[in-house]
Each structure stands twice: as C-alpha cells, then as structure tokens.
Model the fold of this input.
Amino acid sequence: MGKLQTLTNGIIKENPVLVLVLGTCPTLAVSTQASNAFGMGVAATAVLLGSNIVISLLRNVISEKVRIPCYIVTIATFVTLVQMVLNAYAYDIYKALGIYLPLIVVNCIILGRAEAFANKHSVLDSTLDAIGMGIGFTLTLFVMASIREIFGNGTWYGIEIPVLKDNHISILTMAPGGFFVFGCLIAAVNKWARHKPVKRDFDGGCETCPMAASCGGDKAQCEKEGVQV
Amino acid sequence: MSVKAIFAIILTAVFINNYVLQQFLGICPFLGVSKKFDSALGMSIAVIFVMLLATVVTYPIQHFVLDQNGLGYMQTIVFILVIAALVQLVEIVLKKHIPGLHASLGVYLPLITTNCAVLGVCIANVDNYIDAATFGAGYVQALANAFGSGVGFLMAMLLFSGIRARIEDNDAPPAFKGMPITLISAAILSVAFFGFAGVIENIFG
Done:
C-alpha cells in the first residue's frame, strides 16, 4: 500500500464513522455545535496519533496475550494528557465536551486502529494512518455538526444565519436529531457508493468488532449477515 | 436520604436521562447486539450487573484514594483499569463457581469492558454525587443512579430489538437498507422518550 493511500484511506474509503461505523457515541453526542465537534475531532486525533505511534514502536515488545490491557493504558495516558492540555488552554471546549472527553478511552476507533493497523505496521505508516483516520473522523463530525447547528439552531460557529434563525428545527439539536442526521449521512454515503455493499475492514480480525464475543468470531458468518456495528 | 429521593433518581435515569436514547452512551451494543431479543436481554443484564459493580468499586476509590491524595487527574486511567480488571475477575469467578450464569452472560462480559456506558456511569456518578464531607449519602445516590441507568439500557435494548425484528423485512429504499433505517427508527424511539419529560417532577415534586 502506497504512503499516500495509507493517508487517504481513512478520509473516504474507510471513513471510521460513516463506513466502518465506529465511534458512534461521541459522533452523536458532541455534534450539536460545529465548534464542539471540531474540538472533539482534534482531541481524538491527538490521542489516536499518540497511541498509534507508541503502539507501533512497541509492537515487537508487547506480547500477544497482554496486548489489550497495554493498549488501553497507552490510550488512557494520552487521553489524560489531552484532558490536561484542554483544561489549561481551551477551557470552554473542555467544559462543553464534559464526560465525552474521558470517554475517548473507550472510543472504538482508537483501540480498533491499534489492533488493526498499528501493531503490524511501521511507525511512519501508523502515523499516516492515524492522521488519515483522525481527519476522516474530524471531517465527518464537523459536517454532521454543521448540518445540525445550521438547521437546528440557525447558527454556524456562532454566526447567525438570517432566514434559518427564525425557522430553526430545534429537534435536530436534541437527541433524536442526532440519530436522524447520522442515519441520513450514512444513507447518502451508501447512495454515493452506488449501492455497493459497504464492506467492513476485516484486517483487524474479529477483535476490533464489539460483536466478536457474541458471534463466536466466525468471519464468514459476519460477512454473510453483513453485521454492522 | 429518603426512599422517595432514591426512587426519583432511579426513574429519572431510566426514563428521562436514558443513557442510550438521550445521552448517547453505549450506542455500539445498542446497534450491534439488538438484533435478537435473547442476546439483547443477556447483554443488558450483564450491563446492569457490571454498572453496579463498577460503581461499588470506583466510587470509594475516588473518595478515599484519588481525592484525598490530590490524584484527581488519574481518574480516567484508574477507572478504566479497575473496570477491565473487575470484569476479568467476575468472568473467572463465574466460570468457576456459577457455570450456568457464565454460559448465559459470559460472552457479553468482555464486550462490556470497552462499553462507554459503564465508564460513563462511573464518571457521571463521581461528578454528580461525590461529597467530600460525607461518604454514605453520595454512595447510595450513585448506586441508585447506576442501577437506574442499567435498567434504562435494558429497556431501550428490549424495545429496540422488537422494533428491529419488524424493520428487518421492510422494503426500505436501497440506500437506507441496514444501518440508516435502523438509526432513523432509533430517532423515532428517542422522540417517544421525550414524552416522559416532566413526569417525574409531577410524581415526586
């Protein structure tokens, strides 16, 4: 795989949110305002970059059996660092992201990339992968939040939008709007991909899939049923 | 701490601040494991169990260890490790002593380690109920909230597994097949939960 392809893979072809459908919790929760979504995207990208680099460096040191706890500690360390930095320099965003900031630890995208990519690729490739995936995540969050903020609140990044301000659909900024806009975005991507069944990336095997334990790790069964998690 | 207040906390967590439908925590299992009623039920019971257990352990850790030594910044790392270790421990104990329960819940336990609802409930309990002066009252409130959140998760999962069984055979537009139509059904279910807003204040207020 070329270096450029490694980088761009995460942005469109294997977009973590819209194609792999990972990291849905923060996507739905913080996408009420474009500024929050951008903050969340950057924070998650920073954690992903740090954890991918460290895990890639340690890929020959960490033994197979204890790898998941090792990854979790690495990720949690970077999340704590990001929390401290945001608390010190961007307090508004720290407040707005609230509980979802420490919850980056359990974001499936980060553990998924560690498991599927960083533990078997070089540091440079892992860095590029993290940047690509991070941009894909941030971009999706930003687009979704822009839709919800513009139509739901009639503003964008705090700027008032003349006509929509008086005719905003407030339910879009509430919980149901999150599910609805997310569903429509995935449908749009499906349409754009011309109904080609979107294939999950099985590189990481079943460990990256939250369903793994309940299906018994049968890959063929997953592909047949088109399990989407 | 009156019984009434505890009931109010539980009902608020189940209906108004429903973890899945209003706060977007635990969406992965909600979308992934809700296809079959049986697996939805098993997963939810395991979640209630782990949420309670995690709160039982993490709340005292925050109160007696982290807060008193100025280690608040270690919260994220400590909590995730404690939860992961706890889940492993429970799995081992269940396997050895209660094989029947392990057979029905065991498969869901590893999934729960990285379930954001469990870590979320621990952090939210510490944020909302911790009180430096007294330990007992906050602890009871935290446990009530953990239980309510778990039951709310159970309710959302069971309702949604019923809905999914029906949309599975529906003739949705090709682009909407699968995940998109599932998400839009979740949106409608979430709207239904708005109906509960205000109910609790009127009952207990």
